[in-house]
Amino acid sequence: MVGYIIRRLLYMIPILLGVALLVFTLFTTVGEDPVRIALGNHASPEAITELRSKWGLNQPLHLQFLDFLKQIITFDYGRSFNTGEKLSALFAQGALVSLSLTLPPFLLAVMLNVSMALVVAYYRGSIFDRFATAFFIMAMSISYLVYIIAFQYILAFQFDLFPINGYEAGFRAIPYLVLPGIIIIFVSMGPDVRMYRTVFLDEIKSDYVRTARSKGAAEPRVLFKHILKNAMIPILTYTVVAIPFLVLGAFLMERFFSIPGIGDLMINAINTGDFPVLKGLTMYIAIGYSIFNLITDILYAYVDPRVKLD
Amino acid sequence: MSALKKTLLLSSLTALIALGLSCKPTPKTEDSVTDSKGITSKKMVFNYLRGTAHKSLDPMKQFDSASADLVANIYDRLFEYHYLKRPYELSPVLLSEMPTLSEDGLTYNFTLKKGVRFIDDPCFKGGKGRELVTDDIIYSIKRFADSNVNMLSYMLVEGSIVGLDEFHAETKKLGKETNYAKLPVAGLKKIDDQKFSITLTRKNPLALLPFAATQISIVAKEAVDKYIEDFERHPVGTGPFYIKEYSRRGVMVLAKNPNYHGTYPAEGDSGDKESGLLADAGKKIPFIDEIHLPLIEEPQPAMLKFQKGQIDWIGLDKDNFNKMAYKDEQGFHLNETYSKKFDMYAEMGLVMEYLVFNMKDPLLGKNKALRQAIAYALDTKGYIEKMRNGRGEPLKSITPIPIAGSQAQTETDYYSYNKEMALKKLAEAGYPNGEGLPEIVIEYRSANSATRQDFEFLRNQLSTVGITLKPGFQTFSAFLTKIESGNFQMATAGWAADYPDAENFYQLLYGPNSSPGPNHSAWANAEYDKLYKDSKYLPNGPERYAIFAKMHKILQDEVPVIITWNPIYFGLFQKWVGNMKRNMMQDAPFKYLKIDTAGKKKGV
After folding, report:
1. Does B526 touch chain A (CB under 8 A)?
2. CATH number corresponding to B351-567
3. Where are the domains of chain B?
4. Where does the pLDDT of residue A18 fall: very low under 50, low under 70, confident under 90, or very high at 90 and above?
């Protein structure tokens, strides 16, 4: 097991190098020029040269890339081009905010959607199943933005059930996070329930389910003890790799609900060519994704005794 | 089983809603405030919004409107544009009166107001804000001219103060070793702690205007030295408000500076008295105790919050304008439903929209008749009506209408849609009905849907006379690179006044201002340049306007640019907001506004 983990950690190095090279190439070839964005349209050539030099953008590309690699190793991405703020503080603050927005609804959604999928799969072929499938397909077909606008208008503005938008630090943030949380759960229902339903349907038809029933096992036991446990591998794959992206928040949600998380930070960084922010966030996400992939593989061994980590 | 799951689902949702209800935040306007005499009253909180996050609160390092709005409320300048009077004129802020000019017209003598103090801050001895003195003014002007600090706005004073350009150049050479004490500027002279003078390089009636810009706000050396890099997040000013809670991407809270030196204007424009705008004349400002400024980047939540009374003042965007307002022969109005709840303003912006031709382009640059044909083929009035809900006026001179020296004074005329003339000019250009005319590429600075719609409208218009347009959509920085390198045929452009003077617009076509200056057309005309220089230092009046009219005639004939329209800006404010008069040179005049807290509680 330890050897497997070390091997997988070593595999991450070329992956991260590839990500770094890709981000760097994209930024330097097609991204906004941060100097021109910062100085606007009255900038003198001297000012442009000066700022380029201050930000290290006048160095040859290979040296800039080496600097980037050094930042990845030291986890020090410096300061934002845009605001001069320290990125470590900015990321830590933004990640907490984004997680407070996305993590609770994510966990709730997993529980709710798995339960719903189990019920729908149990009634497979019935009118209830057909109605549910049609409903979830319809729900999937509507844009995320429409849900945000409609829920915000109806629940917050018309019925006054939630604050329209806003954010405050600590526990005072809770009222502001409930409506975005409901939307996240609602939006996840369509794709998630359909995906889990397919997984459960595969299991329900299995021989071991028939055997369990023929041995007189109660339906709840068949569903939760046998089917759910055996369906865990695809469910784990689907959910665990989504965790690193929770840190990224939900860009639209953060924007419409004025929640100062990482998603909004990243979009603004793309628009203004704030390369240090982009570099830092992309690398954190790449590292997070690789680590959670590893965790998923380790978890496989726990939920399925047939899987051996050699 | 299914019943159990359904119950679980319903109860979870109910719990979430209950959580939201139970934790719903209480509006902060209900708080109270106790003054130095121990009298408790209802706190006057003004709720506004920030559409984008600011970049820097260091006055000399900012050039974006989000930063300028905050800086203007935390720091003071020597002048500001009078809150009520139109056309816009300077009024003193940190000065006891307007400066006097020496007989030779070269030296301005200034006297500072007494008793102006910086807010209390640990950067001062004992943490107590000290009195503002002449040294602060000279330090701030030098810091503004320091090329290591200010990379964005030095051009506002370039060439106008004796010795300042040399200082600017020297700071470039010295870099971080720059020591202001060892670099005197001949044109900046301290007389005593309250008096100083500024000597100009030549007579210049525009010389004082830059001192109303937020970039030349007055800062304290102690604060700059203490906070260094963090100075842009830790402002220390003499302004009407100070930062109580700093949150760049959350809610910024500004609190009233209890020792602020300012008073509400005693004079206004005609009609201001009748509309109650002079009821507070001479009273100590600010009236508002706190300003809450959440960052709300999307128009929908902003408008919903406004309609709920959680925001006191909001700009009206195109979509909401369609829903809430309309235009008739008398002007702009709110629909009945909204006019009962809110008040509205419609104010002409100090902005000129135009199209630029690259005069170095072998097709357009050499063919005046072709440029004229395009000018005749544009239906600017139709564009304003259809694409901008009528929220603008076609321009007949390069200067926006509210600025002295515009079409109101020069009485000039300009191209309007005329298909026959467009076809005639096209034939004269060698392309009858557009036959043989290659596609013309027009550059845009973004690729969003509004830009694409604008292009479609323009393409349709020009296609009616046989001119084919092709779009060049790109990022802002790619656009700038293309324009400044002269690698374009036609481009969209707009210019917002740096200061409310016609010169700021006529300079856009001055030959020596070619790229990287603002004259992107690279057009140069000796007669125009001479007239520009003649008009630049003249005071407003018939003589100057006559020169403007001559310059306009040249522009109309040569068409290096097509002047299009002057936008009108709309805004809504709650009926409980007092002293509101939209001033296009002061985007955030919070110090003059007030809230009728009793009215607000009742919702009227």
Report:
1. no
2. 3.10.105.10
3. 53-256, 351-567
4. very high
